[in-house]
Amino acid sequence: MLVTMKEILDKAMAGTYAVGAFNVPNLESIQATIEAAEELDVPVIIQHAQVHEDEGLTTLDEIGPTMVGYAKRAKVPVCVHLDHGVDFDYLVRAMHMGFTSVMIDASAKPYEENLAITKEVCKVAHALNVSVEAELGAMFNSAVGSGGRAASSLDDYDSADEVYTNPQQAKEFIEATGVDALAIAFGTVHGVYLTKPALDLDRVKLIHDACGIPLVMHGGSGVSDEDNRTAINNGITKINYYTYGTMAGANAVRDYLATKAEGEKIFFHDIVAEAKKGIKADVKRAMEIFATNLLAAR
Q1: CB under 8 A, 24+ apart: contacts of 223-227
Q2: Burial of 98: CB neighbours in 10 Å, binned 0-12, 13-18, 19+
Q3: Full-prediction pTM beyond 0.85?
């Protein structure tokens, strides 16, 4: 069933679990993600990132209606979310297409400008019963598979306080904008982790205690199970996850092709099916970690 982000994240915050948010730039990713959620009977967020259009993977017009259609037919609550939207008109297009949540990412702009843009998006989105996520602070990009806006490296700054989300500023930002969820910076990275992440998990708790709304972790791929659970217990309720899922699909194809003899006929539909199996297995494992407390309570 199609639901808003606020509906499922408010429940997640009350139950101290997280909802996985998975980018789905093709049909098989949509199918794999929703099937995994249905098998576990957990809510899920499927996302289209504006950057996927820039990368030539798919367009909003191509993938959006399919995402909405699958969400409506799903047996579990599904939010259809626009990830890292930077253009106001693009966000509005998604809203009118049936997306139930949008992320306005103005985090690269000065604080006051980020606040003003987010406030305007919230005004329009809430009138349409669409949830809004914003971002405050700076995330880093890895050298591989990166996406979104980020600072270059923590080494370029005198302290983490210069780039990580400030709890008091986050509180003021939320009160001024009315945003439904906030993506925070505390050491995660977009893309593939080249070194073990060093996360400021205490900062997550400070922000949660100050703000009292669902908090979002971007760069969920590659974070250890232990760190995920601590982050969730400290207040994270939405975890963005894409890179390792799509790598799992590619690895499944590689393993499948390795079983074929030289000259043996290979069919594209079999390759696609293997990729879907790999993605599904990986996102299902991630969902089990994110929803540990929800599943344990049953």
Answers
A1: 223/188, 223/193, 223/197, 223/199, 225/289, 227/197, 227/199, 227/201
A2: middle
A3: yes
From the candidates 41, 61, 83, 202, which is the catalytic residue? 83
Q: Which domains does the chain have, with CATH numbers?
A: 5-296 (3.20.20.70)
Angstrom distance (rounded) from CA 62 to CA 91: 15
- Per DSSP, 33 falls in state H
Q: What is the residue whose two structure tokens read 């700076």? A: 138
Other CB atoms within 10 Å distance of the CB of residue 196: 10
CB 227 within 8 A of CB 197: yes
Judge contact between 133 and 173, C-beta under 8 A: no
Indicate the pLDDT class of residue 148, thresholds 50, 70 and 90: very low
Which of 70-74, 217-221, 276-280 shows the lowest mean pLDDT across its residues?
217-221
Bridge partners (DSSP) of residue 217 are 239
DSSP 8-state class, residue 155: G
Q: Which alpha helices (H) appear in the chain, and where do they start and end?
A: 5-15, 27-40, 50-54, 60-73, 88-97, 111-127, 167-177, 201-211, 225-233, 243-258, 268-290, 292-296
Task: Give the whole-angstrom CA distance, residue 30 versus residue 48.
Answer: 10
Cβ partners under 8 Å of residue 290, min gap 6? 17, 18, 19, 20, 228, 232, 239
- Rounded mean pLDDT of 225-250? 95
Token representation of residue 2: 């199609």
Taking only Cα atoms into account, the Rg of the chain, rounded to an integer number of angstroms, comes to: 19
Instruction: Tell me the C-alpha distance between 20 and 241, whole Å.
Output: 7
Lowest mean pLDDT of 51-65, 191-205, 253-267, name the range: 191-205
**What residues contact 57, with CB distance under 8 A and at least 6 apart?**
25, 26
Active site residue 61: no
High-pLDDT (> 70) share of the chain, %:
90
